[in-house]
Amino acid sequence: DPRLAGRVHVIPNAAVDERVWGAAKDPVPRDGVASHEKLVVACGRLAAQKGYPYLLEAIAKLKAQVPLKLWILGEGPDRAALETMVQKLGLSAIVTFKGFQANPFRFMAAADVFVLSSTFEGFGNVIVEAMAAGAPVVSTACDFGPAEIIVPEESGLLVPVADVEALSSAILRVLKDPVLAEVLRQGGKAKAEEYEPKVIARQHEEVFLRTLRRPESSQSPAGDTVSVST
Fold first, then answer.
1. C-alpha distances out from residue 158 to 31, 95, 115, 139, 228, Å
2. Among 39, 50, 107, CA closest to 81
3. Where are the alpha helices (DSSP H) in the chain?
4. What is the mean pLDDT of residues 29-41?
5. Confidence of residue 105 (pLDDT cuts 50, 70, 90)
6. Which pLDDT value is given to residue 198?
7. Cα–Cα distance for residue pair 215/97, rounded to 1 Å
8. Given a cut of 90, is residue 5 above it in pLDDT?
């Protein structure tokens, strides 16, 4: 709405803190993952929104191309259906459901690639957390957050929603190209710094100060609106 120009300021979530940064220095042991295998990690509620069937189909495509394991963190109503799908796709030796983890960041830090396969997100804090933990990120370009967070080819890779072929290809690129993986790893860490609490607090402060300094005659009765991503 052009009437809101200059009055609406979108400020993202503060998504990382010392717990997340510390995870990069203390990843979990990659138990059950052989030295020649790559580790894919996903994290989120086991529900339709997270698009796990697409991820499982992508992993099924990849298993003949690269030795890998998939860890899925989280619990939810779709766990039984997803476990059945794993069996049907012949992925029982590849996929492990890790359940709820109080510190998921250490699992992210152990990953060769972190994948978000969601069909929609409010923001996508988990992307920023994975970046801060040091994992290269592949995400769907779902509404609304991932494309706001990820700079393609610099801090992550974006693929269309529900596109198994594109998802598997992006994951394979990261797993097969160590130079790309390192670019995304370092770019992701740099991007994650933009979501530290002190940075987000400064953005709030700037909006409040700018509003207070604005001449009274230029303010509408409604004043400024601050919109915070969630």
1. 29, 23, 10, 5, 23
2. 50
3. 18-23, 52-62, 79-88, 105-109, 125-133, 146-149, 164-176, 178-192, 197-213
4. 97
5. very high
6. 53
7. 57
8. no
- Residues 153-210 have pLDDT tens digits of 999 999 999 999 999 999 999 999 999 999 999 999 999 888 765 555 555 556 666 6
Of the candidates 124, 120, 114, 119, the one whose C-alpha atom is nearest the C-alpha of residue 16 is 124
In one-letter notation, the amino acid at residue 226 is V
More confident site: 15 or 164: 164
Residue 140: partners with Cβ closer than 8 Å, 6 or more residues away? 51, 116, 117, 118, 119, 146, 158, 159, 160, 161, 162, 167
Q: How many CB atoms lie within 10 A of CB 93?
A: 10
Rounded to a whole number of angstroms, the CA Rg of the chain reads 20
What pLDDT sits at residue 71?
98
What's at 94, amino acid-wise?
I
The phi, psi pair for 145, rounded to 5°, reads -90, -40
Residue 228 has pLDDT above 60, yes or no: no
Classify 163 as helix, strand or coil. Answer: coil
pLDDT band at 128 (very low <50, low <70, confident <90, very high): very high
Tokens of 96: 């492990």
Instruction: Specify which residues 140 forms β-bridges with.
Output: 159
Q: What share of the chain is helix, strand, coil (3-state, %, to 5)?
A: 45, 15, 40
CA-CA distance, 68 to 81, in Å (whole number)?
Answer: 22
How do 68-73 and 95-99 pair as beta strands?
Answer: parallel
